[in-house]
Design brief:
alpha+beta, two-stranded antiparallel sheet, elongated, four-stranded antiparallel β-sheet
Length: 388
């Protein structure tokens, strides 16, 4: 909204300026006699004797020629309007990326907490079995201590993940405006965008487009500074009525019968201003170079970021089959272990250890699948924020 008002403000420069003036004064001649109107230097002095004087004027001023400076200011105001739209689009994209990051982290933590809760029960059972075996003299104190440490470590990591999960829900509430209960909330899987992964055009991303607008504005400002050396031609016109009476205020108002009209053209040309214009030119030129360097650096950073996401996406797609094979192998091994357990060929502690390994392996694959979906969604969001 502010940018639209700025455009209207600059557009007003194409219209004439109309103003009115009302002057009321008492002029006292200290000499006691008048000699008429006297001009001394650039000052006009009324010397027609003491009197009450009044005038009413209607003035008009219009710029005929300013070397295109008004047009350039209007173009920059339009760029500000476009820049505000681009900034909003960029801000929306940043919110999307942040919510995606928080959601992905929440989903991963939820998976970790679910698995860690199951692992804690396995570790508790292992510790209880180790104590019984120690009492029976089949294992030493070292094995019992190791089971206790593993149980304590699992419980500690579970508490840390629950705390992080609670804090993450608070951060997520900031963006959604909703409150979440850690014991009731459940995260859905992140759906990967359908079809091939879409890669964004870096030059069309809001951040780069905004930088382009800033550079264009500064280039126009530089040209405006250069054109300030050229003459400005303006038209002026005035219509005045005035009255005068040496003794009565009321009579001076009633005497507002005198009137005149004036019109003229003014040519304003700056011949010398102490090299201030040259200094402004140099500063604007350096600012353009600085903005261009920042833009080039940011483009390189975004290209590296997109390239990293692309490599990651391709890696995850190629590794998906390997993950499935690994998961099948882990399940097959677990089935074999359970079968051996039923035949009493392996003890319960060994079975529990295999359950822990299976749960951790499955968790690792699920977390990688989350990362795969997030990477594809991130690239998709980047492409969606492009400024067409």
């Amino acid at each position: 909204a502010a940018s639209r008002f700025a455009v209207d403000e600059v557009r007003a420069a194409y219209l004439p300026v109309i103003s009115s003036t009302i002057n009321n004064e008492y002029f006292h001649d200290l000499q006691g006699h008048g000699t008429g109107v006297v001009a001394v230097g650039g000052q006009v002095i009324n010397s027609s004797g003491s009197a009450y004087q009044h005038s009413i004027g209607l003035n008009l001023r219009y710029t005929l020629f300013d070397s295109g400076i008004r047009r350039m200011r209007y173009a920059n105001a339009k760029r500000d309007l476009a820049l505000s739209t681009v900034s909003v689009r960029g801000a929306e994209g940043e919110v999307k990326f942040e919510v995606l990051r928080l959601y992905a982290r929440g989903l991963s933590l939820e998976k970790r907490i679910t698995v860690r809760t199951r692992l804690r029960e396995h570790r508790r059972e292992q510790f209880a079995l180790a104590r019984r075996l120690y009492t029976a003299g089949r294992v030493g104190r070292l094995e019992v201590a190791e089971s206790a440490i593993e149980l304590a470590d699992t419980a500690r990591r579970l508490d840390d993940e629950k705390l992080e999960f609670h804090e993450l829900l608070t951060d997520l509430s900031f963006y959604t405006g909703e409150e979440y209960d850690p014991d009731e909330v459940s995260f859905e899987e992140i759906a990967s965008p359908g079809g091939e992964v879409e890669f964004p055009d870096i030059a069309d991303l809001p951040e780069i487009v905004a930088m382009d607008y800033h550079i264009e504005k500064k280039q126009v400002e530089y040209e405006m500074i250069r054109r300030e050396r050229l003459p400005t031609i303006s038209l002026y016109s005035s219509y005045r009525v005035y009255g005068r009476d040496p003794s009565s205020v009321g009579s001076s108002f009633r005497d507002l019968g005198s009137r005149n009209v004036s019109a003229g053209i003014v040519v304003d040309l700056k011949l010398f201003e102490g090299f201030a214009g040259r200094a402004r030119e140099g500063r604007a030129r350096q600012e353009i170079l600085r903005l261009q360097r920042i833009r080039d650096k940011r483009i390189a950073e975004l290209e590296r970021q997109v390239a990293t996401l692309a490599v990651r996406s391709n890696h995850y797609s190629a590794a998906a089959a390997t993950w499935r094979d690994h998961e099948d192998a882990v399940h097959a091994r677990m089935d074999m272990v359970l079968e051996l357990g039923e035949q009493e060929l392996v003890d319960r502690i060994f079975i529990l250890e295999q359950m822990v390994e299976q749960a951790e392996a499955a968790l690792d694959i699920e977390l990688k699948q989350v990362e795969q979906a997030v990477t594809a969604r991130h690239l998709s969001y980047l492409a969606e924020t492009e400024v067409q």
